[in-house]
């Protein structure tokens, strides 16, 4: 198993999670290579968020094992909501991970300012979270996740609450941020939007609605970042259709899990 | 000021109606003196009433501090461990639902009859304890669960989590608790003074009792007016602090 850890950014091996009063999730196998972008799709309740929390070490396994980089700040996490501290300004919010790790305050604040500049918020350092739009708050949240220069970035439906224009812009920016870093961080991205998965990721894994197992692992065509107008490209449309079919199949399981909450 | 105007007008109308009713019906002054008599008593007895108000206020304030330190400290300790919360909360509720009048004679005995002021502080603190304990505890647990996860992810220590996350998140709840507790501590102090029933405390409640015993109704009402003004002022002061902090935090 030792060789596995050296060649991947994170991995789940036969991981099972049991919650009281619910069918268990898993066993799940998932390997994330260094620097790759993986999307995770599945029905509501299939365990998408659980997989992210397992990869972050925020959730205990009932069975199986989790491999992840050691050390604080090796993993960044972006939640569904921006999850900023309302009582602190944006710069303090972004400096938090560094300060918790004992980085001197001035140094932490300088690096936070740089991270905010990289997401286009360099002029809003003193703003409070409530003064930001949803898209800007999500950018600040992204800056906070990147400020420690992690090798693994976990995103839990971060753009679900944003309008489609802001969402598309943030996806382009995420690609640019990812490409600008050396080494590139691995990204695991949970979404229930099939187009978003194909566009953003290099491959997409589909979780079974009933068990949370990985039922399909589909590569996205083309290279990152995406060329202009790629959404109307035939290869994109075909990949979206293929993924939508797989997702529908994952939800047709006899458990009777419905397709609610799943946007194609 | 514009916001206060309607209630000021209503108060003036009620006082005027009271004055007119007293004069028209020729009520005996021991039954219901007109507000003008109360005003005269307020002015004539101002030095005495002020020193009594200061005594009551000082006891209530000490009680508030004691209740804040004990209630807040206990809530902090309990917030770190769920079992201890289950152990402590029922006892805190038991203290809250026990009428202060009922425990006052006991506390008076324990404090010593020559130390009625200590008993008053203790009783007022017992009344003010619960909203502070409950407010601090609720506040400390009110932080966004995803922010708690973020602190887990970055390996925050218990102290870092408390200072950077839970206390700031708790602040509005703590201030709300303080506002409720400030009013309760005055009520607790007055009730305790009543029960102690001696002049040892020299607070506003004693002025009420003393005037009542002499059937000087206007003096009673003057002392009552002082209590009312004190309660309103206290409430407004804590409310102003609360508002200022909220504006800074939100």
**CATH fold-level name of the domain at 1-69 and 153-161 and 186-258 in chain A:** Rossmann fold
**Quaternary state, please?**
heterodimer
Listing every helix as H and every strand as E from the N terminus to the C terminus, the arrangement of chain A reads: HEEEHEEHHHEHEHEEH
What is the chain-wise order of helices and strands of chain B?
HHHHHHHHHH
Give me the CATH superfamily of the domain at 1-69 and 153-161 and 186-258 in chain A.
P-loop containing nucleotide triphosphate hydrolases
CATH architecture of the domain at 59-198 and 238-249 in chain B: Orthogonal Bundle
CATH domain class of the domain at 59-198 and 238-249 in chain B: Mainly Alpha
Indicate the mean pLDDT of chain A. 86
Q: Characterize the largest beta sheet of chain A: strand count, sense, and whether it forms a barrel.
A: 6 strands, mixed
Radius of gyration of chain A: 18 Å
The helix count of chain A comes to 8
Helix percent of chain B reads over 70%
User: What structural class do helix, strand and pairing data of chain A support?
Assistant: alpha/beta
Average per-residue pLDDT of chain B, rounded, comes to 89
Low-confidence stretches of chain A: 1-5, 255-264
């Amino acid at each position: 198993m030792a060789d596995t850890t050296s060649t991947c950014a994170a991995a789940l091996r036969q991981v099972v999670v049991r919650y009281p009063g619910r069918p268990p999730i898993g066993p799940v196998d998932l390997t994330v290579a260094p620097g790759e972008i993986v999307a995770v799709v599945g029905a509501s309740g299939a365990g998408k968020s659980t997989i992210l929390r397992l990869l972050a070490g925020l959730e205990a396994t009932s069975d199986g094992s989790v491999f992840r980089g050691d050390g604080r700040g090796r993993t960044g996490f972006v939640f569904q909501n921006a999850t900023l501290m309302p009582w602190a300004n944006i710069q303090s919010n972004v400096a938090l991970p560094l300060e918790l790790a004992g980085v001197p305050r001035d140094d932490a604040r300088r690096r936070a300012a740089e991270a905010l500049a990289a997401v286009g918020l360099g002029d809003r350092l003193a703003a409070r979270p409530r003064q930001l739009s949803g898209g800007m708050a999500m950018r600040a949240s992204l800056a906070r996740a990147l400020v420690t220069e992690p090798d693994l970035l976990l995103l839990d439906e971060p753009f679900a609450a944003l309008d489609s224009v802001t969402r598309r812009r943030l996806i382009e920016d995420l690609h640019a941020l990812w490409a600008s870093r050396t080494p590139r961080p691995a990204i695991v991205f949970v979404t229930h939007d099939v187009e978003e998965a194909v566009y953003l990721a290099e491959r997409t894994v589909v979780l079974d609605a009933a068990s949370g197992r990985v039922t399909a692992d589909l590569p996205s065509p083309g290279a990152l970042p995406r060329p202009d107008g790629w959404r109307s490209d035939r290869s994109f449309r075909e990949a979206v259709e293929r993924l939508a079919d797989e997702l529908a199949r994952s939800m047709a399981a006899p458990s009777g899990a419905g397709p609610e909450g799943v946007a194609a | 000021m514009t916001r206060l105007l309607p209630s000021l007008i209503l108060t003036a109308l009620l006082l005027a109606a009271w004055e007119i009713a007293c004069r028209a019906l020729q009520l005996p002054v021991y039954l219901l003196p007109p507000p003008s008599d109360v005003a005269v008593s307020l002015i004539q007895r101002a030095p005495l009433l002020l020193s009594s108000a200061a005594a009551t206020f000082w006891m209530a304030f000490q009680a508030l501090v004691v209740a804040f330190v004990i209630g807040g400290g206990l809530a902090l300790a309990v917030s770190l461990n769920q079992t201890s919360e289950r152990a402590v909360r029922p006892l805190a509720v038991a203290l809250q639902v026990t009428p202060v009048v009922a425990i006052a004679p006991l506390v008076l005995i324990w404090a010593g009859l020559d130390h009625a002021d200590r008993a008053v502080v203790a009783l007022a603190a017992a009344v003010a304890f619960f909203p502070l304990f409950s407010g601090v505890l609720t506040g400390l647990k009110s932080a966004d669960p995803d922010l708690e996860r973020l602190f887990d992810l970055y390996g925050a220590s218990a102290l870092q989590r408390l200072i950077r996350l839970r206390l700031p998140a708790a602040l509005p709840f703590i201030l709300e608790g303080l506002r409720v507790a400030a009013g309760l501590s005055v009520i607790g102090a007055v009730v305790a003074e009543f029960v102690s029933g001696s002049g040892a405390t020299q607070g506003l409640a004693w002025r009420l009792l003393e005037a009542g015993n002499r059937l000087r109704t206007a003096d009673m009402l003057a002392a009552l007016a002082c209590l009312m003004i004190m309660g309103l002022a206290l409430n407004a002061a804590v409310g102003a602090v609360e508002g200022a902090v909220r504006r800074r935090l939100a």
